[in-house]
C-alpha cells in the first residue's frame, strides 16, 4: 500500500513518531519531538544507552540548536570549551591557528565544545525516561518496516518478543548499517577509504610534552598524518592504519606505545585508556525521505571524522525533522500545511548540506593532511597561513567549519515556501 500525504491522517498524531536508533542523533530527535509536543517511541538495539565515544566535538551552530531543548548547560558543566584549533605539519610544526572568538558577535558559543558523545546520550536518556510523551524501548531490533496508507508499520523483536508498532512517521537514526535505510531500499552511495583510522586515548597530558600544542590539532604528514585533541577525560590521537596490517597488529600494545612515542617522547610510557579501529567512508544516501520515513545522521550520511562535523550535521538533521513534524502536528489543530512539501524540503535541504558541506569539507581536510606532493603540501601551508592572517577570510572560514554558514543558508526546519533549493550535486 502506498502512503499518500493527501489522504493520510497522521497529522492528529494518534500514532507516535518512531525514532529508530538511540545514539546522539536519535536521542536528540526524540527530545526535540517531545518539545514539539509529539508522542515518541524510541527503539534502540542496545540494552542501554550507547556507550560509544567516537565523536566528541560540538560546534557553535549545534550548541545553538541544543539550547532549544535545554541541554547545553549540562553539556558545558561536563565539557571542555576550546576557542582555538591548529593546523600543523609533522615536520614544520605550527602552520596556522584559528580562533572561533572571531564569531563572538554572531553566536553565544564562539568555540568548539569537547564532550564525548555518550555523555549527551546519557543526559538525554535520563531526561526522556521522565517524559510521559516518550517511550524508550531498549534491547529491541527492527526486523521489518512497511509503509502503510497512513504511516508505517514496524516489526520489532525485543524483550517483549515479536511485536508490531504503528507509526505516524519514522526517523531512521540507526547508524551506517541502518536497518531503516535497508528496509526502504535506499542506496548508500560513495566509497570506503583503503586505510582504517585508529583512535587511541591516553591520560598523559600531551600539552606538557608539546607546549605549543593546541587542544585541537590537525597535523599533516605524507607518511602518517595525525589528529590530536583534548577531551575532558583524556588526550586522543587519531592516525591512519595501512591496509596490510591486521586488526591484531594495528592494536598491539607495543605498536600503540611506539605510535604515541613518535607523537611525543615520554620515558614513563603511555597508559592507554581506550583504543578503537574502524573503517572510514564517504557515503550519502540516495534519498533522505521515502514517504513518511526520514533518514538522519549516519543512516543518511557518513564521512571522514577530520572536521568534526558528522555528528553535528546529524543533530541538525534531527532538529530539522522534529521542527517539520511539529509544524505538521500543529496544523492538525486548525492550521494547514503541505505535508509532502515539508518532507521533500527535509530531503532536499539535508542532502544538500551533506553533499556540499559535510562531504566536501571532510574530504578536503583529509586530502590536505595526507598530501604526498611536496609542492602541494607547501601550497596548502601557504593557503592556511593566508586565511588565518586575514580576519575577514578567517571569519568566513570559521563560519563554514562551525556549520553556521549552512544553517544561515538553509535554516533548520525552514518552511518550504521560504527556501530556494537546488538539487544536491
Automatic annotation (TrEMBL):
Residues 16-359 form the FAD-binding domain. GO terms for molecular function: monooxygenase activity. The keyword Oxidoreductase applies. This is FAD-dependent monooxygenase. It comes from Pseudonocardia alaniniphila. The keyword Heme does not apply. Keywords: Monooxygenase, Oxidoreductase, Plasmid. InterPro entries: FAD-bd, FAD/NAD-bd_sf, PheA/TfdB_FAD_monoxygenase.
